Amino acid sequence: MLLVCGFTVPETESAEFSADAAKAMRLLTAQAGCVRAVLGHSADDPDRWALTVEFASVVAYRRAMSPFDVREHVIPFLSRGDASAYEVHTTATDGQAGNRVSVVAADAGTAGPRDASGPAMPR
Length: 123
Prior knowledge:
- By secondary structure, the protein is an alpha+beta fold.
- The chain has helices at about 15-30, 60-65, 70-80; strands at about 1-10, 35-40, 50-55, 80-85, 90-95, 95-100.
- It contains three helices and six strands, in the order βαββααβββ.
- The strands form two sheets. Strands 2-3-1-4 form a four-stranded antiparallel sheet. It has a two-stranded antiparallel ribbon with strand order 5-6.
- A hairpin with a 6-residue loop joins strand 2 and strand 3.
- Helix 1 (about 15-30) runs antiparallel to helix 3 (about 70-80).
- It is globular.
- The two termini are about 15 Å apart.
- It comes from Kibdelosporangium phytohabitans.
- InterPro entries: ABM_dom (IPR007138), Dimeric_a/b-barrel (IPR011008).
């Protein structure tokens, strides 16, 4: 599972922003199932930043967002940007690429709370 968040931060606020990002990264990477967090600063636009956090699973992502200190600091921090969570589809290492099997149900885009016990076929 990938959490990707893009931020627009004026250069005058970049020191405070990077300190807030470091705290968010420390809190998230301390959670079980958090693989790593990476903060990037655009080489083309000094106001653009990107934070990517990798989790071992959807469950690990959801659990990592639950502790009080994460909800107190990380959630407000992420709300400053444009955040989305992504299921990992393909990975590549050493020139070899491989697809992962989706764990998202085929009807995930249309299923509602009443369908909780419905189909579990992956996409």
